[in-house]
Fold this sequence. Notes:
Blueprint: H1 9-29, H2 37-55, H3 71-91, H4 99-118, H5 131-135
Amino acid sequence: MNSIRFVPTMVHGVLDYVGGIGLMASPFIFGFVSLGGIAVALPIVLGVGLVTYSLLTDYELGVPSWRVVPVWLHLSMDFSAAGLLAVAPFVFGYADEGLKVWLPQVVSGLAVMVLALVTKTDSQSAVTVSPAKATG
């Protein structure tokens, strides 16, 4: 049976850092920074959190001496944070501020939820080669 998890952790790691920076910049990029409040603070805080726990994750792009977060936990945090991002405009009442505010959050939240579900849970940094396989 083929696993639904096909995205390598290295690819996921690149997307983590790009996504984290994108979240922090999104209120400025999409022009809703003037709204203030949770609409602006949430993507910034989630972006900072994403970059932080990515640095601490036990995968190829985590800082080697800081790798304390297992990949499965990282993916769980991704899924939870992305779910919050996707529903936040409706839960916190700023969806009526327009598409430029809520649509990027909903789309990116749903996309990250899918990414978390299809990313492998074993990183190349955690995979070891047995001597029998290494010598052929």
